[in-house]
Amino acid sequence: xxxxxxxxxxxxxxxxxxxxxxxxxxxxxxxxxxxxxxxxxxxxxxxxxxxxxxxxxxxxxxxxxxxxxxxxxxxxxxxxxxxxxxxxxxxxxxxxxxxxxxxxxxxxxxxxxxxxxxxxxxxxxxxxxxxxxxxxxxxxxxxxxxxxxxxxxxxxxxxxxxxxxxxxxxxxxxxxxxxxxxxxxxxxxxxxxxxxxxxxxxxxxxxxxxxxxxxxxxxxxxxxxxxxxxxxxx
Length: 234
Prior knowledge:
By secondary structure, this protein is α+β, with helices and mostly antiparallel strands.
């Protein structure tokens, strides 16, 4: 409890000072589409209705730099997804992904990058997916394409050409298995205060939710950040 209270306080102070989230303070928000083929994917059912039935979903995508470092410096890059109506009308799914490796260990470790398309983005911590612990990741669809990882370049490139990712999941000892395709495009001129407040615990689905590992610490950090953004500056 003490460490969670400490995390809440730190996140609140940082968010209040920035008038933005404590981590990933500034970003580029764009619209997107998530295509879930469902039963068309090989490997049998996942045991999760959202993954096992075909569907096409509107997505709000926020691309960001984790520490908010100046452009020109590598930073861990964030890819936040809100999949609208994933669990039915008014029941979205939030996924928070961070630039990472793809190996069994590397998928759990943030990896700072210059190039936003140099590798995958993962949830870092595991999800319960169909009764098994798996990490979810987004892999750039075009391995030959590069994209500078500063926000101005991201906004310009997204306005010129869509960016696509293949969403996959894998547990320990499992190969990566695809379950959806994400296409992001058309950056939106949202003020940062009006962008969605992503929360993977509140916006999860039956059979598809984060494990409880470090849940209290992460929830306290999210809560502190939300409170800090709404505090009235002294």
